[in-house]
Amino acid sequence: MPRRPTSADVASEAGVSRTTVSFVMNGRTDIKIPPETRQRVLSAAERLGYHPHSPARQLAAGRSHVIGLVLRQTPEQIAGDAVLVDTLRGLASAARTEGFRVLVEPLPPNGPESSFEALLRSQHADGLVISGPRTDDPSLLALAGEDFPIVIQGNMPGLSVASVDVDNVAGARRAVEHLLGLGHRRIACITNAAVVYTAAQDRLAGYRTALGAAGLPALDELIEEGAFDAPSGHAAMKRLLARTTFDAVFVASDVVALGAIGALREAGRRVPADVSVVGFDDIPLAAYFDPPLTTVRLPAYELGQAAGRALLDRIAERSIPSRTLLPTELIVRGSTATPSSQRLSTAV
Amino acid sequence: MPRRPTSADVASEAGVSRTTVSFVMNGRTDIKIPPETRQRVLSAAERLGYHPHSPARQLAAGRSHVIGLVLRQTPEQIAGDAVLVDTLRGLASAARTEGFRVLVEPLPPNGPESSFEALLRSQHADGLVISGPRTDDPSLLALAGEDFPIVIQGNMPGLSVASVDVDNVAGARRAVEHLLGLGHRRIACITNAAVVYTAAQDRLAGYRTALGAAGLPALDELIEEGAFDAPSGHAAMKRLLARTTFDAVFVASDVVALGAIGALREAGRRVPADVSVVGFDDIPLAAYFDPPLTTVRLPAYELGQAAGRALLDRIAERSIPSRTLLPTELIVRGSTATPSSQRLSTAV
DNA sequence: ACGCGTTACTGACGCGTGTTAGTCGACCAT
DNA sequence: ATGGTCGACTAACACGCGTCAGTAACGCGT
Question: Among residues A179, A223, B16, B260, which is most buried (max CB within 10 A)?
Fold first, then answer.
């Protein structure tokens, strides 16, 4: 069985030195190689079925051309994240533009703490995108201090690491403004997650900002916490219904919103006739909810791309902004209506 | 700035040779190392913050400890696959048990054909799990012929490559038997995808088998094709409604089913009062559809695990079965009912 | 004839590790 | 004393490539 060909084999096949082969294969423009020599090398490589041995090249060049995506989330959180795959695709596409590949490392927060640290320290990856980390992650703090190429996907105030995120505050504000514009005044909020998560904090902040700008108080009795999945939305809505009244609700996650809508239905409240609902994320199924969900579109693919580009810039030591915010877009569908139509339908 | 420590540094710090360090770090049991020496090496490594340089170790050992997950699907297909992330988690967990990591390579079918081939040939990955390939993929055929470690996630008849899949035929059959057991006789079917996809073929075969076993013909007029997403289910259901009548439908995908249910609603048909619906996949949101969807649970995480284990066995040259089928489970919820209750509700 | 630059290469070192074939004592049976 | 075995280690090569420093040939102006 023939050994896999090495650059030395290509060199002797083409009648040049191994160095020349290396220059040709890496397409170095700073070295002059006459077209005919280049061609001779290329066709020799082709003939032999030569493929550079990537570990060897990593060793010699000191760069692995791999970026890691660390999923620092609970399994439930990952499974429920309907846009994660899109983000991954965006990341991979950005990586590919510079010949990088993406390694995915799912690491539950309660798991082995410094496991992704090894990815960098062993130079298995040239940089990391960290999704869903917590501020108190000790290994993350250590890595950040050592100036490793890291980009955080999300928000992590007080940490001097570049981050890429969706403008959660503005998106949530826009959602609530939509409800206000329809004439709603008692607007409840169910968060997408516990408020120790910054995305939940930010969306809640947008909710409060919108209310404040309209001269309305943000009442604690109108706020409940969701936890990524539909059951949590269902439970949160039941708590809200048992406690107070409202004519609209901003649910900071489409998935949680679906659970909440279910609870509304069970309570005999109709959407949007009795209660208007706005979600967040615009998951592919949102348009097929009953009623179709008005929501805030989150550019998942673009988010991944932005994170990838930022990380690659950081690896190549190009300067990057410390924080990138991507815009959101309000998608109006059937789950929101004016309060007047509510009176109409309750009269029926 | 101090260089990263190498095994040579650890060796001199511990007062042993580099070879001994290597033996200790790799925990080789076939070499006798007294506990005190082992401890001396370990604490020296600890003191210096030593982490083996993974490209170097890959070069020397000839193994990358990386497996690739190739997503040979269209972006829409990937985004719509609600269980993909779970499969990835299962794969990663299986990989971790043997110290492997997972590299994800999204490659649209119409993209660069032999791009994932390079992953193997350059020894960037020790093996591949290929998800959603097509039988006519030329580079896949070439790789299969060359005896590379490959496991296909799905069904690819006629190709001598190990594969891991869910028992689509049995699952679909069970779903339709459930409808038959309720008393339904005119049962339609909307596939999850075009029937060039083997998963769609298999589920359709299960549908036909169940009907056949009950002595019923499988009428072409009762069959429509879906295409991964909710809009396709919506369109397929509209075509069915325009063409024929039925009192139940098996939709071979929860996502497609949601679109179909929307079309039923628009046509004034109620679920399950007028039409019973069974889905497939049991996506996390299925329990929160209106009505909660009766469906066939697909063990996504276990599927990923099984694929990972099969691939690792293959890489380690342990014998593996050429085909592994995972069982499904029928989850009965609210979208199915007996025809008698249909008459009841239409009477109301 | 000479210096100088340019073109087109090449020799050899280094990257950090795994591993084979040994070395050197010490201990034991003969 | 001698041969042999075993434990504990090590020297040195191999892995395949990137890259620096260098060189030989050649042209060209003076």
Answer: B260
